[in-house]
Write a structure and sequence with these properties.
This protein is 55% helix and 17% strand. It is α+β, with helices and mostly antiparallel strands. β2 and β3 form a beta hairpin. α2 packs across α4. It is elongated, with a radius of gyration of 37 Å. The N and C termini lie far apart (125 Å).
Length: 300
């Protein structure tokens, strides 16, 4: 009986001790917060000031860089983004020192260095895309608005960001491609030059004059508006097909995919009309059936 009474007396005592400890802890945290509140407010003010400085500085830098007309647009964007990152790094460092006065500059930079290593190991792919984006903006030849092809990805570059590149397909879909993918794989820039060489294969019958047919095709190409006059057309017989003499037809037109498709349509139409008007046969596949025995016909 005495033991049970002793246990009942100890329970309220333990609860009171826990409550007192909890109150002391909360009170200590609150007192520390109140004590640090001016420093926290000062740190927030530093961050706001950093945001204002970054905004003003990047605008002035962009205006200055636009005066240099020979500088690529992607290089201007890269310099602006790097300057913004550098200013934010300085602002965050100053804010950390203001909030925690006991931290000097060397300790802050050392802590940020260790933090960057830990974050770099944890987010390796993100930083890989980040540095790939910097190299893309710095050295790669394609710009926003170019048409590129990389593996299964083909379309117009809508935007080049630090971590990813946005590509708009000709069918309207938007593809978000990690920059490391573009950096590691061959990229074909379809609009690197204003003109692009296109070729198709035409065919005329074996009974036709090949030289005359070639001349008719050349005249047909020269009459097309989409065929560039800055470079010559090339029309050469290229081989013996199953039902025709094959003629390779090559010309230069605007480099955008839509321009290439329109030019192909115009050229094919023009060649068909020209060969028809000249009475030159455009053959289709012939099939000759041979039987081992003569066929017998019966009248019904």
């Amino acid at each position: 009986m005495a033991e049970s009474q002793e246990i009942e007396e100890s329970v309220p005592t333990n609860v009171k001790e826990v409550t007192d400890t909890l109150q002391d802890t909360v009170g200590s945290v609150w007192a520390t917060f109140i004590e640090r509140l001016p420093f926290i407010v000062a740190g927030i003010v530093v961050l706001i000031a950093t945001a204002i400085v970054v905004s003003i500085f990047t605008r002035l830098l962009n205006k200055f860089l636009r005066r240099n007309e020979s500088m690529r647009d992607s290089l201007r964007d890269l310099l602006g983004r790097l300057a913004s990152i550098a200013l934010w790094f300085v602002g965050l460092t100053i804010a950390a020192i203001v909030v925690f006065p006991g931290i000097d500059l060397a300790k802050a930079l050392g802590g940020l260095g260790l933090l960057s290593v830990a974050v770099g190991l944890a987010f390796q792919d993100i930083f890989e895309n980040f540095f790939a984006g910097i190299l893309l903006l710095w050295r790669f030849p394609f710009e926003k608005g170019d048409f590129i092809e990389c593996g299964d990805v083909e379309g117009k570059v809508a935007d080049i960001q630090i971590r990813m590149t946005l590509i708009r397909k000709s069918t309207g879909e938007l593809i978000i491609v990690p920059n490391s993918y573009l950096f590691k794989n061959p990229v074909e820039v379809l609009t690197d030059k204003p003109l692009r060489r296109v070729h198709i294969t035409a065919g005329v019958g074996y009974g036709e004059d090949v030289a005359a047919s070639t001349r008719v095709i050349i005249d047909a190409l020269e009459s097309c508006e989409s065929v560039s006059t800055r470079k010559p057309v090339e029309v050469y017989p290229s081989g013996f097909g199953a039902s025709s003499v094959d003629i390779d037809v090559a010309w230069w037109t605007d480099s955008k995919p839509g321009d290439v498709r329109r030019s192909k349509g115009e050229v094919i139409t023009s060649i068909k009309v020209a060969l028809d008007e000249a009475g030159i046969e455009i053959p289709f596949p012939y099939r000759t059936l041979t039987f081992s025995e003569p066929l017998k016909f019966e009248r019904s």
